[in-house]
Amino acid sequence: MSLGDQIARNLPYLRRYARALTGSQATGDAFVRATLEAALADSELKQSLEGGRVPLYRAFNKVWSSAYLDVPETVGGDGHEDAAQYRLKSVTPLNRQALLLTTLEDFSAEQAGEIMDISAENIERLAQEAIAEIDKESATSVLIIEDEPLISMQLEDLITSLGHEVCGTAATRTQAQEVVAEKTPGLVLADIQLADGSSGLDAVDDILAISSVPVIFITAYPERLLTGDRPEPTYLVTKPFQEQTVRAAVSQALFFGSSRPLG
Q1: Where is the Response regulatory domain (predicted)?
Q2: What predicted TM-score, i.e. pTM, was given to this entire model?
């Protein structure tokens, strides 16, 4: 497989990681572009990317770390991106990186340590510290849009174990509309394909037309959202999922979901 093919295969997931790390699609994509530009300009770095996914994320991490304090403010961003800018100034980025690499991106502690150039033991410690920081956020109400009953029940149990309230579950777009008519959720977990052939994307669009709430898509078809053709979700979990991955995504989404500046 050529270097270009390797990068193309892994690029959608690097972009997902960058968006989750920064809380902004525009900022995340800017760092990804900077990583690719750096690789093109550095033959040694370019050659290292032939090693696959870990070297690609390691190259991104070097760009992110060196430019972290110089990220420009997002102009005209939505409430979530504005909140992300405030949050990123106050939360230790190493903690967040360790958590996302080992949960959302499913790297081992050893692989994450290679990416961040620290030990696996430190990765595990940083990830736990990140969870502790994020879990300080207040509880919220959650709408689960999922047409598979067993998965819906699993998500319900997980959400309540995190101290949140499930305000409703929906297997179709219409059911989601009915739940939201009664109570606007503070967070939405949504599948793409629903029971009656309706779309979870449309169901989420209905909700976002009423209120700006964080959304986590949980799907077996991530490639349908990671196309670059439309605004992509910041939080995207692939089925079959690990509960720790969903927990990390929930924590991140709620952490960035408040539009209230810190301080």
Answers
A1: 141-254
A2: 0.57
